[in-house]
Amino acid sequence: MTRKPALAVVGATGAAGSELLQILTRHEDVWGGIRLIASPRSAGRVLSVRGEECAVLALDEDALAGVDLALFLTPGEVSARWAPVAVSRGAVVVDSSDAFRLDPDVPLVVPELNPHAARLRPRGIVASPHDTTLTLLPAVGALHAAFGLRELVLSSYQAASGAGRAAVAALREQLALVAGTELGTATGDVRRAVGEGRLGPLPAPLALNVVPWTGAVRSDGWSSEELGLREETRKVLGLPALKVAATCVRVPVLTAHSLTVHARFEDEVTVAKAHEVLATSPGVVLYDEPALGDFPTPADVVGTDPTWAGRVRRAPDDPCALELFLCADNLRQGTALNSARIAELIAAEFPR
After folding, report:
1. Which of 68, 169, 186, 323 holds its CA 20 to 30 A away from the CA of 209?
2. 286 to each of 16, 158, 262, how far by Cα in Å?
3. Mapping DSSP to helix (H, G, I), strand (E, B) and coil, where does residue 182 land?
4. Which residue, among 161, 350, 123, has the nearest Cα to 254 in the 3D structure?
């Protein structure tokens, strides 16, 4: 007997949840039914998916009953509590939070790179990487397969939406406050104009500014997102000793993360060969004609699926190293799309 599996989307009313519902509507229908779940305060809202109106259910054990696969787009503390409950009720869980990414019994999956790992889930959970990691890996993973990756030095330029809707609201309010002013020419004038009460979840003003910090404090001056980018990259690529150093920066962009990448390889590389690899890799678009003004920016890539790659150069002092710039929509490619693709891999395990 064949049947399509039943899907639950937990966190359906969030920003990534909204993107996911669009993706489910656009992709092939592999689901026997889709159940939308969110926090109790969002229960009763009606959302559209695949042309049907669905009432949102409050997250509880009953809402998770009878589900084959539960896709969590929730904060880590919510996933940590409720993902095991969903597994105990018979579901496979795909989780987009940081709750399980580095758990050795939970595979961390990027379908373009390690789809086989989605089947290896002793805890019944599959994790999706952080949105910054997902901006990086489609391109860097393809280059690793061609040249053998040895070392990464990274700087991220992360959009406000990566810190949640409160950060987006704070940036919008700050931009309105500073619009048309002469701020930014004297020490502290932007901070005074914005005021401490309008920072939202950020440690400093984001309008007319960049903030060299994302995540929580960790030892030796590192942030949780910098160390997470390092460990997630190692785990997905299967390179536990890979040298990775990252500096994560929040920038005044609403949506789409960017990265500068210094990648050192075992073999000598050329720009022509790197272009060939990137242009033919799934999940990557090569956009690299600087003389024509062609290189990816957040304004270009927002609302699109792939990682965009440009500014590809061979390092001037190392024939085994490349410099490049990557950019991707952090809500779409960086969260919702990867989770949907993992879920579709698992759905294919059901007999048809």
Report:
1. 323
2. 25, 20, 17
3. coil
4. 161
